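Hi all, long-time lurker, first post. I run a small reading group and we've been trying to get comfortable going from sequence to structure in the token notation. Rather than ask abstract questions, I figured I'd post a concrete chain and ask someone more experienced to write out its structure so we can walk through it together at our next meeting. Sequence below, copied exactly:
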Amino acid sequence: MTTTEKVAYLKGLADGLNVDKASAEGKLFSAIIDVLDDLALSVEDLTDQIDAIDLDLSDLEEYVYEEDEDFCDGDCEGCDGCDGFGDFEEDALYEFECPACHEIVYFDEELFDGEDDAIECPNCGTVLELDAIGEDEEDED
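-- Answer (accepted) --
Happy to help. Here is the structure in token form:
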């Protein structure tokens, strides 16, 4: 039995008991049942909204986590630069730990080819020297 059905039962029970709605007790019971009815309808509406969100989330999860049949499992030719679909990435990402906030920051190859020699950490705003980052990446190779 749903909450709205239970409240409807209470309304019927109060009517069947011939509670005098003009008396103090009758007014109280009537007000309590009205509040319960409003709460039950609100819960029902909220449940419907949650169900709709759950369906949308399910669709989104299916879209995001769906396994693509063209997805590379690491055995394709030249997997060092593979983007996961057997195609080579044109812009490789470089991982760098910010010395100030110690967060991992990712830069693409284009940053090293540009005219700027420094960039701000997107996490803490510390100015990072691109020359030092490039040298760190070259040392790792």
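A couple of things your group might point at:
The mean pLDDT is 77.
Strands lie at 93-97, 104-108, 118-120, 127-129.
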